[in-house]
Design goal:
- The structure holds 2 protein chains of 2 kinds.
- Chain A is built from 37 helices and 5 strands.
- The radius of gyration of chain A is 37 Å and the shape is globular.
- Chain A is mainly alpha-helical.
- The longest helix of chain A is centred in the middle third of the chain and has 29 residues.
- Among the domains of chain A are: 125 residues; 149 residues, no CATH class.
- Chain A starts with 7 loop residues before the first helix and ends with a helix.
- By secondary structure, chain B is of the alpha+beta class.
- Chain B has a domain of 380 residues: 7 Propeller (Methylamine Dehydrogenase, Chain H), CATH 2.130.10.
- Chain B contains 8 helices and 33 strands.
- In chain B, β17 and β18 form a beta hairpin.
- The chains are: A mainly alpha, B alpha+beta.
- At the A-B interface, α2, α4, α7, α9 and α15 of A face α1, β19, α2, β25 and α4 of B.
Amino acid sequence: MSHEAYPLVDLVKQLDQASGYEFQTLLKTLTSPVYINEQILKSELGLLNTKILKLLRSSDDFDVWKGCHTAVVICSYNPLVLCSHASQLLAAIYSKLEQKVGYYQSTISTMQGKTLLETLISSLSIIMDLMRNKPTVSREGLVPKLRAIIPTLITLSQDEPQLCLPVLQTLLKRNSTTFKPFVNKYRIVLSNLIVNHYHSFDKDTQTLICNNFAYLHLIKIQNAQSKGTDIDEAQSHHKSFSDDTWTSGLLNILYQFKPIIELCGELLDFKQDQDLQRIIESLPHSNVKSDDSDDDNESVHDFLPVLKLDMNAPLTLWQISNRLNLLVGLMNSFISLPTPFAIRIPIGGINAICETLLSMTTKYIPLKRELRRDQELNSIIHDIFPQIQLNGIHLWTNLIRSCNKCCIPLGSKILSNVELFIPLKNKSNLIDFERCYALKNEFGDVFKLINIVLPLMGHQFNEIDPIIKLINVALYLSEDKSLIDSIFNQQKELQSAAMKNNNNNSNNKKKNKRDQNVGALSDLYTHPEEFVITTSKEWYDETNQFFIMILNSLVLSSTQQTRIIKYSVSIALYLKSINDEIPRSFIDLIRCIVLHPGYEKVSILPIAVNILKDVNDEMFDLLCHPRLPTNMVYRVRNNNANVVEDEDEDEDDGRMIVDEETAANEADNVSLSLKMTEEKEKVVIMPHVERKVDIIEDETKIFKKRDIEDVQPEIEETTKRVKIVKEEEKVNNEVPVQVIDEKAFTSNIEDKDNGEDDNDDDSEFEIPVIDISDDEDEEE
Amino acid sequence: MDEQLIFTTTNAGTITNIHSGEQSNLRQCTVGSPNSAVQVGHKYLFVAQEGKALINVYNISGPHKRESVEQRLPLPEIVKCLEVVENNNSNAAVADFDLPYLLLASTESGKLYIWELNSGILLNVKPMAHYQSITKIKSIMNGKYVITSGNDARVIIWQTMDLIEQDDPKPICILHDHSLPVTDFQVSLTHGDFLSNSGLILFTASQDSTVRCYDLRLIATENNKKKRRKVNNSTDTEGQQQQQQNDDLSQPRLIATFSLPFPINSLCLDPADRAMYLGTNNGCFALDLFYKLKNNRIVNLLQLNNEDNKSKIYSLVERIPHGIPQDSNSLYAIGQLLCDKVSSSHVTALKSSMDGTLLAIGDSMGKISITEIYSKQILKTLQPLTSGQISNGPVMNLLIETQFNDTKNQLIGIISSSSKSSSGSSTQNSMKIPTLQRIIYDKEKLGQLHDIWFQTGEPIGSNNMTMQSKIITPLNDFNGYLNNIKSQELIFQKQQEQGSTEIKTIREQTITSINPKQDTTTANKDKEIAELKKNIATLTSAYKDLRDMHEKLYEEHEKLAK
């Protein structure tokens, strides 16, 4: 094996000059297990190591870059190199990184420099990960280096949080003790990032910052501990929990919510709602504030600046929702991050906060009297409240994601509170769909929350109203919306206005002016379809998930059911026409509708099968052609050789059963189905009786169809039965009762059975009977 | 892979395996009633102690399972049955400290206690959930519902949410078809996302010698809800309302009743609902639920007649192996089904194995016989490892769990990482289960933090690598890593090209800047031009001469040719 390997010496020589494809091939060669050989450790691998070190130390950026990648690859795939040389390589990479960080400004002035910086950090992180968990290597190689690496990374994280924070996060979590001396420095850096730049980072970086901030609390702060013992001496004999620092950090964030919610009291008239006032009063808040040790505490924890709101500058109000956003982000990190020990999560407190956040709406609480005049202020306030509520929704979502079932008690509260988020028209109970549309993205989050709450709950809800409302909203928002509807409407108004009273020249002038300043608007009129917002696939997935869950647990009223059916079928067809493929969630939804027809009398099975005919859906296949017969008795094996013999026996048996228990309905049914199968077989044997074949096959089909419907939840059946009885009452005198039809039908079959060589006349006679029963099925 | 089997008799608890010989004894384990032991996750076993208000917690995880009691949970009362509602989080790996959500316990008087295990908070107590002692508690459908059965011959289905939220929870429905204590019940294991409430079948076994199966139709209608609210408001009319609800869509429907000549002690289902096994004082009987008639016909016993929707009543008759052949068809016609006798011991507990071929039969003597169902042969008999005592009492609890043990690595001596971490944590992480409280938690009181102890597991797929940071490591995805290299190298190459052009321009500039006197260069150029012009002139004159010569010679040549 070894002689087939590409000699390392040559490889090392080539490494100097290699670039492009050559370099990649060299890296690939290095992954070969051939080089995991202790014999070549000293000689060839040593050589490779020196070469990599040389590359890493060179002043040419490209060489350093090559060195980094080679080091990472060889360390990943070669345990020998990892154990013997990794610490050297790590040191080399680190020292290069330090250089680059030292001259940060000049480094990032070129793309090249930026890329190199990125590579250095990622290689550093990968090699550190590889060294971790291996006792000797990490003790000898990693930990001593970390003392130097951490401060550098912290410095760099001020400028490049995206690059450094992930690495620091793992370091904080995995090497908390080594990190300890740098905690305060890091805290300052993070606080700075949070206070000054939080809202200018993208979502991922924001989460990273929050996660890092939370992980700071893995390390015990001496300060807090000593203080803790001061305060409750009575409790000092208790063992301190390992999560003390974490909890104090978490509570600190939790306590921040209350003052901000109280700020909303400046906008809303809380006095109108005594209950809410009491709830707000009882929200978790810091007890320490009243103490003297306030200043001390503040220096450690209260890094967030005071909000500056000014009613005269309404835009400053947005700070409320921004701050809440930050707090929810931090909270999320505290409750959802994996920790090495169990932590305490105050679900009650968090829930209370979410509830109050969602009550921040003008729906039930009026605005303060003095604010009602100001138009600008009012419009901003109306925009802000949904955002405040949304924060509550996010917080709940995160809480349930991490604690799952522990949130079951919150379920019905969440449902009823989410109802508060649905905007209503002024002074009525109707949903304001226009405003819903403006909040479409937010509603996406609402459905996310609902979709994780519902699986926790059973099928009997305390309140159904919120669900019905949400169904309406979901259906409305799933329609594509044209952006220029309003323009057309305005145009109409304008025209009508013009028709009525305006023949002035000013109108023409205006038009001319507009044409000069703005580009042509003709596109709006000629290609209105280009200005439509299409609904995203994610939205459909969420709403479909919601519908599926509702249909599974609730029999909806007919209107709702029909609307959902219409939605699913039409959108599925539309998407199919565009993409030639129906999204998974629609297939699932259609399946679900077929299985849960609710009060509907007509099954959408044919529609569903028609739509999904290209999808090869097994479930519909099974519904249409049941493999396990749905009737009481069925055959297992069909051995061709014995067919004729078996048949005779079968018949005898069948007759016997018929003879014995014609009275018993059940047995009737048994024999009936037995005969059905027999008939079928006979058909196979004697294909020349063509006429008969057709009709009998028809019969079986009808039976099958009926069976299919019976497989579905029995709701339909019972309704059917009720109907039949009613009909019976109505038509009592005129027509021989329709229910009998089936029995008549069975006797027909028996007749036919007895006279095997019957003419076609017999079957003709049967046709009307079949038709009636068929009609029955469809009409009812 | 092996199947761990835990069983307790009245005075001994044993952990063993079906396929291997390992066996260990749980210390200080006394059990007073059936279904009083419950396995909690993969780590713990809770056993309610006889005559003591105490639950013993045993650590049964990993290769280092301990026989001694890990923790004792004191209770306000002596309890009989235990059950947990698991808190399975699908998007994270199992954390070290991973407790189920609820602990349900019942007392002699039919009281139902509900604790939240993560905090120890007593969420609710339902007095008189049953009028007599509860015989079994089971959470089904991912913990959404809880079913209890009692000596009062009733089976009650609760919604977990209601048990927690409401002060006086009302059941979803009560089944009172049995006439004597219900001893055991089982719910079919399969339910899908879409068929979630259509295939769920409940089997109940009772001392009145019958087994009943119900189609649990867990779906709500709007009307039903209103009715239910009414019921909640006026408890007096509960009976009437109940009557009305009987016809409702959302009530369980009796599919079939099977009667035996003997009272039934325990019931167990084939994992795929193909057969049902019944334990009686006179032996264990097996009934195929897809019942075979003559001539290759099969009856699906769990299906309602399409015509009248009435449930059927079958009586079970023992098949006599070597006697007169019984005609299954004629027996079926009169409502009798043949069933096989698997064992003739006094059965107190039953469980089927993972593949449905073996049956663990616990008897009144405290023995477990592992029996192959098809051949009815006893493969193995397991007994508690106790000394001195002749009888250990009847088998009270029988739990089987399929386990994965990494045999491949065990041979080499490497313990798989999962078992290592769990065993390591048992010594390292001294986190105890919070004490169970005695006072009902007041939900209405404002301003409570309601702390729960909780540990989030590592997100799945992190695998100790920095997956979160989106750094592609060569070990996880080498091609991705190479791709990354390609894109990075492109930047370097571009930079190099750009760099070289820059340098060129600089050079030219430097050249120009080095020569300060531009005039001289222009003078030089003029000179050169002059020289070149001279050259051209001389060359053109020379060419003309040659041309003339050539023309003359050509003319001469033509003359000569003529």
